[in-house]
Description:
single chain, flat, mainly alpha
Amino acid sequence: MSVILGELFAFLNPALHYSEKRIIKRIVVPTISLFVMGCMFSYYVAIPCTLDFLYQYGQAMSILSFFEITSFILFVVNMLLVFGFAFQLPMVMWALTKTLIVNTNFWKDNLRYVVIFLVVLGAIITPDGSGITMWFVVGPLMLLYIIGIIAIKADLQISRYNWN
């Protein structure tokens, strides 16, 4: 992915103004950091707990669990991608606010609706049918939503300070 992004930036670089390059560089670091944090959370927390839960659930039903390597790798890659993209929530919130599609108070005013939306989204994007994995997605997303609200407020304060 880093090679693809590097080539894309090298292709677009001559057509971009200095301010546009600065904005892209300012966005790339948090986006990649959030994606990596999502993958790390998935790899170290969500996947082991999910596999342990599914194994114990199978044992409780007296079912012997066998994993095919292809389906196991597909499961792990899906979990890594789901969590990596799910952790982009603060960047999506920031982008929607920065482009004036949504005002800054929208995020705080609609918190209860967002909780319902995140639970439904967590149920849709989890690759397995267990509710445990869904809550591993929803919990961090709620925390990231609150972090996104705080980051948007901080960015607004910085923008007001720079204009004065």
